[in-house]
Amino acid sequence: MFYGKKDIPLSDVKVGELGSWLARRNKSPSAMTGAISRAFWRWQFKYVLPKKSGLVPYVHFVVGLMGIFYVINYEHIKYHKHFKHHW
């Protein structure tokens, strides 16, 4: 039986308790992989796999591609703010 402090979700953590909350986390590579896997499957079950998911998976895909291409092209576009005419 564990008598330590009860674990609380991140959304309920106060700013002053954030350091001690982070110290209690398991930071091993397998724990990080598990957290990413749980987040992916949570997203899948919520938005992609329902019978009536609608346009949401496609919008997520398009927004994700936009973010990826922005990161890829950042070296090319980061100086555009200094141009008089941006094209």
UniProtKB/TrEMBL annotation:
Chain ranges passing through the membrane: 55-74
Localization of this protein: Mitochondrion membrane
A GO molecular-function annotation: proton-transporting ATP synthase activity, rotational mechanism
Main location: mitochondrion
Superkingdom of origin: Eukaryota
InterPro entries: F1F0-ATPsyn_F_prd (IPR019344)
One record GO biological process: proton motive force-driven mitochondrial ATP synthesis
GO cellular component: mitochondrial membrane; proton-transporting ATP synthase complex
UniProt keyword list: ATP synthesis, CF(0), Hydrogen ion transport, Ion transport, Membrane, Mitochondrion, Transmembrane, Transmembrane helix, Transport
Assigned protein family: Belongs to the ATPase F chain family.
Record protein name field: Putative ATP synthase subunit f like protein
Protein source organism: Argiope bruennichi (Wasp spider)
Species lineage: Eukaryota, Metazoa, Ecdysozoa, Arthropoda, Chelicerata
